[in-house]
Structure prediction request, 73 residues.
Amino acid sequence: MIHLNCLCKVITVDARNHGESPHADVMDYHAMSQDVAQLILDLNFDYVDVLGHSMGGKIAMTLALTKVTNNNT
Prediction:
């Protein structure tokens, strides 16, 4: 079921060296997950759900495995 009345923000990300993002010499999942972590900090989000498809899914998994979380549930 799709809930269209969601009180959430959806942010899409161009991974480094993709879309309109700038070129970077280093392009691995750790670096790309650090990019997402920095974006979360820059946007000052307290709570996020991160998901991705294919490469984005690997970035999300790397983020989940390498970043400390504050999970109150």
About this structure: Residues 8 and 58 are 23 Å apart (CA to CA). The chain has a mean pLDDT of 87. The chain is about 35% helix and 0% strand. The two ends are 23 Å apart (CA to CA).
